[in-house]
Write a structure and sequence with these properties.
Elements lengths: L1 H19 L2 E7 L7 E7 L5 E8 L6 E3 L2 E7 L7 E8 L2 E8 L2 E2 L5 H9 L3 H12 L3 H5 L14 H18 L1 H13 L8 H14 L4
Length: 212
């Protein structure tokens, strides 16, 4: 048992030592793979260690710890400042998430992240329900019919009620209205957010002089 404990302590110490090292990462386009990215990571002065591996948090790629590491063929949503460090010895494995200051993020990464979550009209409406709080929008969508007979099909019924709810929300939590505006900016598929909702939001902001 003592040997097992000592082993884990050694692995923990390796990760602690790594956290003290000056480190940085740079993102660039992967010239050999169109539309993909690569990350070059540098751990200043660190010695190579076959018991420790590094992996971008959203990727399954894994590289053995050394002073210079490169990851390639990464999708835009796999880019972040968080990396998983795994230390293994015998049957013991320790995993920790560390942050590495990372530069070179593509301008459209944030938009890609939002579009991966708000990917259809149903998820947009669920998001609005979440932002406005309680089950208000959900109750208007009884049966979750998002198609032709759904929420925006009968906009003349839905919009005044939604406007009223947004007014109430702007008093109780104005920052939540800005959250809606943020998603309107980031979602690029015009079929997901109908024009009448965008117009409602614009009218709302103009009336209440909410900065966008």
């Amino acid at each position: 048992m003592e040997t097992e404990s000592d082993n884990r302590n050694l692995l923990e110490q390796k990760i602690k030592d790594l956290c003290r090292v000056k480190r940085q990462a740079v993102i660039s386009e992967d010239n050999e793979n169109a539309g993909k990215y690569k990350i070059e990571v540098e751990f200043s002065g660190i010695e190579s260690d076959s018991e420790v591996t590094v992996s971008p948090f959203n990727s399954k790629q894994e590289q053995t710890l050394s002073e210079h590491i490169e990851f390639s063929e990464l999708e835009i949503l796999q880019l972040s400042e968080f990396y998983e460090i795994t230390a293994r010895s015998g049957d013991d494995t320790i995993r920790r998430i560390i942050m590495i200051p990372t530069s070179g993020f593509p301008d459209d990464r944030e938009s890609a992240a939002v579009n991966s979550v708000v990917k259809d009209r149903a998820s947009f409406v669920e998001y609005i329900a979440f932002v406005l709080g309680d089950d208000y929008v959900a109750s208007m969508l009884e049966g979750k019919q998002m198609g032709e007979s759904g929420f925006f099909a009968n906009s003349s019924d839905a919009m005044p009620a939604l406007y009223e709810k947004m007014l109430k929300t702007s008093v109780e939590g104005p920052e939540r209205i800005k959250d809606i505006g943020y998603v309107l900016k980031m979602v690029t598929d015009k079929d997901i957010i109908p024009d009448e909702f965008r117009e409602l939001y614009e009218t709302f902001c103009n009336t209440l002089k909410i900065r966008r």
